[in-house]
Amino acid sequence: MLYCGMLIYYSRWCDISRPNSSSRSPTRCASGFWTHFVNGELTVGELQQYLAAEQSTVSQHLAALRSKELVSGRREDTSVKYTVSDAAIWQMLDIARDIYERQLRSHQVMLEASR
User: Fold this and answer.
1) Where are the chain's structural domains?
2) For the whole model, what pTM was predicted?
3) What would be the CATH architecture of the domain defined by 35-84?
4) Quick one: which of 30, 1, 28 has its CA closest to 95?
5) How far apart are CA 115 and CA 110, in angstroms?
6) Torsion of CA 35, 24, 106, 114, to 10 degrees
7) What is the pLDDT of residues 37-53, one digit of tens each?
8) Which residue has the higher pLDDT, 20 or 54?
9) Displacement of CA 3 from its chain's centroid (Å)
């Protein structure tokens, strides 16, 4: 079973994992974690490099995603290759990103109006 709340949380994961990073825009981060899976399987080390995050942090997040069946892992030699477990996740991420971006625009409009 897919957990939509967890999916939305992880669609914005790079914001959460790097709270002091001002160089990443919310729109870019909306799919930051997941976009690396578009071309197929990734190891923890590859994700760590792409996200500039600690190995233990990436491993913990992957374990949580694996427990909810959002990603699956396949052992290859001494490493595990992770991939998105169901192609429908991409559709759900598109919807989650659209919702997030609409909310962001709405908040920006309210902020501008209050100035």
Assistant:
1) 35-84, 86-115
2) 0.61
3) Orthogonal Bundle (1.10)
4) 30
5) 9
6) 180
7) 877 899 999 988 888 88
8) 54
9) 14
